[in-house]
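Help needed: design a sequence for this.
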């Protein structure tokens, strides 16, 4: 069984192929046998195509293409031609799993794609204007290239879709509920995967655990997970809410936006750019959106970088505290994604204020290629570092549904 996964964005496409006949233990993610990417930001009128196989063959090409569907077709050609060939024919692909950012209130789980699902993704474009159009285009390109191969949509929002109304509703006017203005939450595929993996590492049933999962990458979000469902999360109507991030502000007083519109004449697009691209670690430090570089600058005495790291930690700790209150208890705190998987400084500083609960880390936890428990043996709460495997989770969802 061969499953293709596509993550179609507005400026990049990432794809990989899993050969599920080789998998012996499905709770451990296997490496894809092929992965490829299209980068549309490299140069005007061109796309940068890269592909590599598990066995080490690599390809890099600039193609004079601007049409996304054409780029996707060229990317798939590397599966069946040249040094990166891993399939005899594209007909060997048994199913395609798509990352789809917004499933709105309609989708609480992954789903086989048909005309109704495509219409729903289209209808939800106003809620995810940067992502859903690209996701839909990816689905249609695959249909055009692969014919009627089964396709599955795995929604970023689905894992959070059973959040209680009190957590999901914003305290604006009641009409917002009818308008679909509510907390949806994102990174759901990652939060769901690491929660399942945490249960497996702890040797417990997910339905009996209380977990806080911290997805800390360029985008950052927390989820409070009880009985196997997300009951609260920090991202909201859009992925801009909640924690301070690489270049996104996270939550700010909405009065600031009113002030900028009234006093500085900001447009919607200008606010979008400011809050999504020029804020967060990058905006405060003036150094980078990359936490490694901000920490480096802090260590060299850069005061803005020091403030950025202190703010990142302050907000992370405060939001962990709020997830803890939503759960009313905690079995394990789970760190994942670029920052969460790698930064010992963040593990230590994020856990510090919870020492009063008996949460205690090992003396000097270090990063590892394997998933690990970094809590001290006598800690009352486990602290797990788990490598997120969103592509594998999408492939598994696809396999289940086809
Ligand atoms: P994305 O959300 O784009 O998938 P990643 O999950 O790859 O991003 O996370 C990127 C972030 O991870 C960057 O801020 C990067 O600095 C951070 N990161 C990666 N390795 C480390 C490390 N060793 N220490 C601190 N931060 C790290």
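Sure. Designed sequence:
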């Amino acid at each position: 069984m061969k499953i293709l996964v596509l993550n179609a964005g507005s400026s990049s496409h990432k794809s990989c192929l899993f050969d599920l006949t080789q998998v012996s233990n499905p709770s451990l993610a296997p490496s894809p046998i092929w992965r490829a990417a299209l980068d549309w930001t490299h140069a005007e009128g061109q796309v940068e195509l890269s592909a590599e196989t598990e066995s080490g063959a690599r390809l890099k090409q600039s193609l004079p293409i601007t049409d996304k569907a054409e780029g996707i077709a060229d990317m798939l050609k590397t599966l069946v031609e040249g040094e990166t060939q891993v399939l005899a024919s594209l007909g060997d692909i048994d199913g395609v799993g798509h990352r789809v950012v917004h499933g709105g209130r309609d989708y609480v789980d992954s789903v086989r794609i048909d005309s109704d699902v495509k219409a729903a993704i289209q209808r939800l474009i106003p809620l995810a204007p940067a992502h859903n159009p690209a996701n839909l285009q990816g689905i249609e390109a695959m249909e055009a290239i692969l014919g009627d191969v089964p396709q599955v949509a795995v929604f970023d929002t689905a894992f959070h879709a059973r959040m209680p109304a009190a957590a999901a509703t914003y305290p604006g006017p009641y009409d917002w509920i009818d308008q679909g203005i509510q907390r949806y939450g994102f990174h759901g595929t990652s939060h769901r995967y690491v929660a399942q993996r945490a249960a497996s590492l702890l040797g417990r049933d997910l339905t009996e655990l209380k977990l806080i999962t911290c997805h800390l990458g360029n985008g950052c979000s927390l989820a409070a997970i009880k009985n196997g469902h997300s009951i609260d999360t920090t991202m909201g109507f859009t992925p801009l809410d909640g924690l301070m991030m690489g270049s996104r502000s996270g939550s700010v007083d909405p009065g600031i936006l009113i002030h900028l519109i009234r006093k500085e004449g900001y447009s919607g697009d200008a606010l979008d750019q400011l809050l999504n691209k020029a804020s967060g670690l990058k905006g405060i430090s003036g150094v980078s959106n990359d936490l490694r570089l901000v920490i480096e600058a802090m260590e060299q005495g850069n005061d803005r970088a020091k403030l950025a790291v202190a703010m990142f930690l302050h907000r992370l700790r405060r939001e962990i505290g709020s997830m803890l209150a939503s759960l009313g208890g905690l079995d394990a705190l789970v760190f994942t994604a670029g920052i969460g998987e790698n930064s010992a400084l963040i593990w230590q500083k994020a856990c510090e204020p919870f020492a009063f609960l008996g949460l205690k880390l090992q003396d000097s936890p270090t990063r590892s290629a394997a998933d690990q428990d970094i809590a001290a043996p006598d800690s009352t709460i486990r602290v797990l570092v788990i490598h997120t495997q969103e592509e594998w989770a999408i492939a598994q969802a696809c396999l289940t549904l086809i």
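The mean pLDDT is 95.
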